[in-house]
Amino acid sequence: xxxxxxxxxxxxxxxxxxxxxxxxxxxxxxxxxxxxxxxxxxxxxxxxxxxxxxxxxxxxxxxxxxxxxxxxxxxxxxxxxxxxxxxxxxxxxxxxxxxxxxxxxxxxxxxxxxxxxxxxxxxxxxxxxxxxxxxxxxxxxxxxxxxxxxxxxxxxxxxxxxxxxxxxxxxxxxxxxxxxxxxxxxxxxxxxxxxxxxxxxxxxxxxx
Length: 208
Known about the structure:
Helix content is 54%, strand content 9%. It is α/β, with parallel strands linked by helices. The longest helix has 36 residues, at 78-113. It is flat. InterPro entries: HeH/LEM_domain, SAP_dom_sf.
């Protein structure tokens, strides 16, 4: 394969103006990591870097291409990225709910300290302060644990690859309808709410 010696590819899913400007200033041509498909051919270049899909690295190896791999990171699949994004969104939701709950508690306490009649509409009764405080503490601990596990999982390439392999090796025919629907949701595949098992399996079975 004839390669363009001056072409340097950088695979990434971060196309923010700042990141694009920084990478282009380094002489890279950007490619969207999550848009790569295993059927795609090897692009002529002298170097690849960033979140290079594993399949693309394998393709370089099979073709014995004289391409430099610099600062290569393992790319996260769209399915795994969705799981990570959903977990992050859930964590942010819990943080927002806790902040609102804390504000309600502070408002009620301030009204009682000043000796004024506090508007208890929609607020937590005084006798539940201790319970609310305990719930807040437990929730924060659970959130910290969940965030720690998420960060650890994202940094553990082996764990991510194992999870991907596990998802790919599932025998869908043994799953129940609800479980099949969960898998389709995880993969971002649309389906009818009243779809039968055979119809759901057809969506998960690659077409020849």
